[in-house]
Every structure is written in C-alpha cells, then in structure tokens.
Amino acid sequence: MTRRKLPEWRGATPDAKIPKRVQLRVFDAHKGKCHISGRKIGRSDTWELDHIRAICNGGENRESNLAPALTYHHKAKTKIDVATKAKDDRIRKKHLGIYKPRARIPGSKGSGMRKKMNGTVVWIDE
Prior knowledge:
By secondary structure, this protein is α+β, with helices and mostly antiparallel strands. Helix content is 29%, strand content 13%.
C-alpha cells in the first residue's frame, strides 16, 4: 500500500512549533536514525528534531531541513552552529569597518602614537 503524497510542511515563522504529525514523518523518513551520529534511536533514548542547516546560518524552518538527532549530539551541533554564526558576524563587521579591537597595545600600529628616533612620543591622526 502506498501513502498519498503530502505537501511539505513549512513553518510560518522561524519560531513556529513543529507539529507531532510532521515529527513522525521526519522520523520515519530517516528510518529512526540520528542524522549526526548515524545511530539507531532506541525507545529509551531522548531525541529532538534538528535543522540540518541551522536557521541562524540561513536554513529554513521546513520539513526537508529537519532530521532526528539524539539530544546529546544535537546540543553539541547547536553549539558549533552558534559559534560559526558568531565568527561569520565578526568577520563581516571587520570587513565593513564596524568592528574594532577593544584594547590597543601602546606602540602598536593601531595605537595612534609613534616614537621618533630621538625618543619623543608623538600622536598621529588616524
């Protein structure tokens, strides 16, 4: 017996809760395996649905971007996703000139002061 084709679920917002029927469909589509570790999810294991490409990194809240993951592995992957997003933001801010280093070491290129050959320190305009 074949199942009828259902339209793909898509969340109205990135925070939309995933319905139980969609969770079941995603679990069955992945044959009950954790997509991070590849291990079969047992009855006593706790699992969550994971966005394969994280929403903060440009992923969408839709059925094709979801996969089951054991809770332990999901938390570790989420940490990596958040760290990746933070680094991308820092690099982009640096390229746009928004991000400046907090502390400037006296005498370094960014400090704005120079020492002349005779020992006097002068401030230069940046």
